[in-house]
Specification:
By secondary structure, chain A is an alpha+beta fold. Chain A contains 15 helices and 20 strands. In chain A, helix 10 runs antiparallel to helix 13 and helix 14 runs parallel beside helix 15. Classes of the chains: A alpha+beta (about 675), B mainly alpha (about 140). At the A-B interface, helix 4, helix 5, strand 3, helix 13 and strand 11 of A face helix 2 and helix 3 of B. Chain A: It comes from Portunus trituberculatus (Swimming crab). Chain A: One of its GO terms (biological process) is regulation of transcription by RNA polymerase II.
Chain lengths: ~675, ~140
Amino acid sequence: MADIRLEVPGENAVLEVLYDGTELYQQPPSMSENLTQLARKIDFATDGEEVTTEEKKEEEEEEEKQPFQQPHWPLEEVRNKVRQALTEVSVLHDLLMIVKQKPHQYMVLDPVQAEAPEPKAYIQFLSLKKSLQSAASILLTGGERLRASQTDIGRPNRPVQDFHIELLRLRQNWRLKKVGNTIIGDLSYRSAGSMFRQVLPQTGIFEVSKADDVTGPSSLVGASGAASPLSPMANRAPQSSLRVNVPTELTGLAYIFVCIKKDEEDICSAQLTSSEFVGGETPWQQKLEKAQNVLFCKELFNQLAREAVKLTPSIPHLVVGNQITATIFPGIHLLVGLCHSDSKNGPKGGTLPGSVGGGGGPAVAGGGTGGTTVGSTTTGGGLMGPSKYKHEHDLEHSLHQLLHRVYHNSFQHPLPHPVYASMGMSKRRRAAGLEGMDRNQLLNMMREQTLLEQIIRQVQHNFLRLRTMYVIDQLAAEFKDPLIVSHWNAFNSPTQSCVKINIVTQGYDSALRTKLVIHIFERTLKCICRDGKIMTMSFEPQELRNLILCQISQHNMAALQGLAKYTGWTVLSSEQNIGTGTIEPLGNASTVMLASPSGNKVIGVHSGPHQRVSVFVSSSPRPDFYPSTVVSEQRWEHLGSVWQEVRHDRMEGRNFLNKMELLMAALTA
Amino acid sequence: MAQSAKQPQGREALLKSYNKRLKDDVKSILDNFMEIVKLGMVEDETQIARMTQVEEINFQMQVRSANMVRAAESLMKLVADVKQYLILNDFPSVNEAITHNSTIFKTKSLEADQKLMALRDDMASDLYELEEEFYSSIYKEK
């Protein structure tokens, strides 16, 4: 083998080639430069063996990249590296000294631990599997819960009804809206035309919430345990999932108590209590209806109380606590009270001391009778009221009707309605400007009857009707002879009714039938008699009584004349208002004289409204005629004898006319 | 006007929020599921210790699955909310119900009126007879 000597080429590196082809060579480095370059290449930090070729390359590249920095003197780098090596060796020496120190104070040498063995992969798999299992179980339980809740909804006959279905039903019947997270409902009649604003604007508001599932089944169990065995169906009834929270002032039961009182003394002592107390666990519909009823009653009472204070009749109305007392006739009072029982103060009246806005007017009168009020409302028996005060259901109904009508009128305006006119004006008022009405006319037009006035009118009429009925029945029971038959008209209005009275004698209906019609208004009676006379009477019962007594008396006389026609007797005279005889306390007595067909017997009948009928008889050839010095001739015996009274109450016969017929027959025979 | 303009705006926002809730929940379910699947991958080289990693994965999976359940329940809640919203704001159906109810009640009231009138007529005629008899009888004492 031939030795190949590697040498540095003798030529220097070409630095630049000029355009004319001349090459400029790099000057070879001097001796010192060469040494520096070689010394720089020595790396004291490496062993030489471990340095990979790649690192070397990188270093070379770096070196090439970095511009060659000229050291200050040739072996500077060598010096630096040697110094660094010295530092490291010193540190190592110090360290070894510390380690070698006995006892070990600062540092101990430990054997190097062997590298941890490679973890087994299956542990990782197992743990992953476990994690996935736990995740799956969580998902499954969650899914199961969802499924359970869903199947619960779809299943019929389940214990709890669906919240949304119930909510839908509630929404269809009540006004609901969502405020924030709660569902708020409105109980008030505002949308129906009510203008009722209480002190708190949220009075008619209730809250709808979802009944807790926890309480649902437990209460169901409690209910089924407590329910009577007679009602197994009740247990199966689904539990409501709706809960309705009604404000406390609207809970319970309320009604308007209306009664008519006669006693003067204890005006304020009527106790208004109610035993009907509604428990908390009622279906929401009933609960809401009751609450609405409470609200309605409160509004009604409030309105009435306001009107009672505002109105100024001759006898002022009394507003005390939860009662309004109005005088309808002298000695007769109308009592309107608000009965409200709620959970707070139990079943008793007078729960609304503050609801009556202005009790200021009659406060003096109320103070005077307040003692009796307090004293008499202590019974806990829970009666609706004292038995002597009868609750007038029809009047309560009328009150409700009146307020409903107010609602109705506030929204219903008569049509057609011009577009330019404001709503709620009546047709007359729209025309008022055109017709140039003055203030009085306008005021008259605007005046409306208040609820209290209307109800008082109705009560007056009611009372007057009952009293008329009573008077007529009393008279009918009192007088058997001419029968008094009354027929009440079925067509009547709250303030007007009508009764037809027939006065007949039994068995002699065809002879005569005295008819009269009485119209009953609020404070007056109008009587239309048989002869067309119209009489207007006041509410005093005595006037009606007198009138009927007069009619009975007249009936007797007229019937007797009718009978005379049938029997052939002649009416000699008939006088309606006779001036002689004892003076009647009221009206006038009347007389009738009848002559027998042959003319030899004469019957005289005298009757007055307050006197019993008296009958006299005289015969024409007087049996006891004795000629005297003055009347000497025999012919004067035909003048008629002295009147002899017939004791007709001892006579046979069913009634007056029957007796008279028998008497006539006896005298004719 | 401002009120009426405000109202639809609030409604629009509410509907949008429902939409957003729906999307968020569905996305949450999907994301969590994806993450769980990703966690199922075995990784060799990690910075943290093996046991820590195992615990972390376990815990993460539990949390993510619980998140999925929560999102599903949130969807149910959303359904309930939408139902409630529909029930409370579905005015056409409410109007229909009101009309239906009012027709029913009007019919009932008409029926009751007719029956009452018939009853009244019957009673009036009977009462006439009865009054006639009563006042002609001797049993009138109160």
